[in-house]
Amino acid sequence: MVWMLFFDAHSWLFHHELNGDINELEYQKKHYRKEMAKDNKAIKELSTDEGIERTARETYYMKKSNEDIFIIEYEDSIPKNKQDE
Length: 85
Fold this sequence. Notes:
mainly alpha, 3 helices, elongated
């Protein structure tokens, strides 16, 4: 019985390690599926002209030639330097 639990090639310890590996891989699989769903949603948004324009404006602050853009920053969003104190 002791031999089968600890020393055999199909021991309980070996199976316990494998079960831990399986659980970790299942978790990674769920995580990557969620990431794939987010990426597919982003691809779908970027496949339209409106989506490309919105992404360019929001992410890269691009604008049309006849527009002015104002970026509003709040005090809590600006990093403080030690010299400013």
